[in-house]
Amino acid sequence: MANLDIKLKVDASGLSCPLPILKATQGIKTIESGQLMEIVATDPGSVKDFDAWSKATGNALIEQDAADGKFRFVLRRK
Amino acid sequence: MTATAAADKPKKLVIICYSGELEKTWATMILASTAGAMDMETTVFVTFWGLQIFVKDKKRITGENWMQKMMSFMQRPGASHRKLSKMNFMGMGPWMMFKLAKKYNVAKPKELLEMAQAVGVTFLPCQMTMDMFGIKREDLVDGMGEPVGAATALQLMTEADSTLFI
């Protein structure tokens, strides 16, 4: 888990729906297929939303965790 | 890896943006921008009061004749000048909504509109509404599609996976 090669880190802390998803969309377009993006959000709804976004777009959600009110997602661009 | 729904064929969403109130404008913009972000092929057909949202913010009066001008005077056009259907209180309601939106980092309709356009959402103005209110292409925000009519809207709706009337 510590060895993930994160290409891009996006901080969506404090942002409300749907901004974390929109930030993720903007971010993932800047990396290449197969590369990883990490996004951190504080919106509790983002847990289900990132799952839905991943399924809809095909950008795989390869890791997620929550700690201290922060939700972290690692996504691989399709 | 589990199979994802990420289809070979993108899902299609059509939103009929009919109402011009602030809360409904917000709903339209949130869903349109998010649908675009989810790679859904998203088309928003903009008609009746909904078209007022898409008039440039700085445009104060639209229309050719006195009735059209009067109509625009009585309900200021532009995405940033929407009124609430409830609790408008001469603008106090929207003012508080924007204060709260800022406090809780909720994007404003105008910002969401720009983000929706950036993720490829198509906004199609209704030709009939433009004619009736005397609204010209140059009165509308940049990046709108070609004006169309009810038949185009219906055809898009029958081909869509989901349709919303807001």
Describe the structure.
The complex is a heterodimer of chains A (78) and B (166). By secondary structure, chain A is α+β, with helices and mostly antiparallel strands. Chain A has a single domain (6-76), classed as TusA-like domain (Translation Initiation Factor IF3, 2-Layer Sandwich), CATH 3.30.110.40. In chain A, 28% of the residues lie in helices and 36% in strands. Chain A contains two helices and four strands, in the order βαβαββ. Chain A has helices spanning 19-28, 46-57, and strands at residues 6-12, 36-41, 60-67, 70-76. Chain A has a four-stranded mixed beta sheet, covered by helices on one side. By secondary structure, chain B is α/β, with parallel strands linked by helices. Chain B has one domain: Hypothetical Protein Ychn, Chain: A (3-Layer(aba) Sandwich), CATH 3.40.1260.10. Helix content of chain B is 42%, strand content 12%. Chain B contains seven helices and four strands; from the N terminus they run βαβααααβααβ. Chain B has helices at residues 22-37, 49-53, 66-74, 92-103, 109-118, 127-133, 150-159, and strands spanning 12-17, 41-46, 122-125, 162-165. Chain B has a four-stranded parallel beta sheet with strand order 3-2-1-4, with helices on both faces. The mean pLDDT of chain B is 94. Chain A binds chain B through residues 14-19, 21-22, 24-26, 52-58, 60, 78, and chain B through 1, 4-6, 11, 30, 33-34, 36-40, 104-107, 112, 115, 118-119.
List strands and helices in order, with pairings.
The complex is a heterodimer of chains A (78) and B (166).
Chain A: E1 6-12, H1 19-28, E2 36-41, H2 46-57, E3 60-67, E4 70-76
Parallel strand pairs in A: 1-2
Antiparallel strand pairs in A: 2-4, 3-4
Chain B: E1 12-17, H1 22-37, E2 41-46, H2 49-53, H3 66-74, H4 92-103, H5 109-118, E3 122-125, H6 127-133, H7 150-159, E4 162-165
Parallel strand pairs in B: 1-2, 1-4, 2-3
